[in-house]
Amino acid sequence: MINVVLFEPEIPQNTGNIIRTCMATNSRLHLIEPLGFSLDERAIRRSGMDYIKDCDITVYKNWDEFMEKNKDGDFYFMSRYGHKAPSQFDFTKAKEDIYVVLGKESTGIAKYILKGNLDRCMRLPMVASARSLNLSNCAAIIVYEVLRQLDYPGLATDEQLKGEHWLEDLQLD
């Protein structure tokens, strides 16, 4: 199971987009307070659409509570201070659930958390003058890298709502 962990997220639209990614990939979402918004805000409902009701979301008061309730797992941290790309980690060797931790938009993951996990910190490659990418984009990139390595377990690769061959069968006048 893939778990996306947002450490003190600040922007509701990012969290809403991540909710959509988690629902679509059958990943769990963990939110660590304080949150920079309310989960019932219009912005989060708009960006999360109707996926919110189908997403497995748990909220924690702080990092310590999160760790106390999620002791077992393989943890990875997305950070500007990481030295490896996500593709340099072998997620197929995970013996437990995979947890991908992303930090708040303004300052990232708390440094005391990163310092003890430097070997599990990753960074998305980008030009040297770029500081960071959007949080929801980073979450989608890393979730799909994990899924790619695991060969997309349990996910459909064909159109399911209109039918697998809908476009091929479409009659154009």
Structural write-up:
With 173 residues, the chain is of the alpha/beta class. The protein contains 6 helices and 6 strands; from the N terminus they run βαβαβαββαβαα. The chain has helices at residues 12-25, 42-48, 63-69, 111-115, 135-149, 166-169, and strands at residues 2-7, 28-32, 57-60, 74-78, 98-102, 121-122. Strands 3-2-1-5-4-6 form a 6-stranded parallel β-sheet. Strand 2, helix 2 and strand 3 (57-60) form a beta-alpha-beta unit. Helix 1 runs parallel beside helix 5 (135-149). The radius of gyration is 17 Å and the shape is globular.
How many DSSP helices?
6
Q: If you compute it from the alpha carbons, what radius of gyration comes out, rounded to the nearest whole angstrom?
A: 17 Å
User: In which range does the helix fraction lie?
Assistant: 25-40%
Shape: globular
Structure summary, number of beta strands: 6
Strand content bin: 15-25%
Q: What is this entry, summarized?
A:
By secondary structure, this protein is of the alpha/beta class. The protein is built from 6 helices and 6 strands. The protein has helices at residues 12-25, 42-48, 63-69, 111-115, 135-149, 166-169, and strands at residues 2-7, 28-32, 57-60, 74-78, 98-102, 121-122.
Keywords:
6 strands, 173 residues, alpha/beta, six-stranded parallel β-sheet
Write the layout of secondary structure elements.
Blueprint: E1 2-7, H1 12-25, E2 28-32, H2 42-48, E3 57-60, H3 63-69, E4 74-78, E5 98-102, H4 111-115, E6 121-122, H5 135-149, H6 166-169
Parallel strand pairs: 1-2, 1-5, 2-3, 4-5, 4-6
Helix pairs in contact: 1-2, 1-5
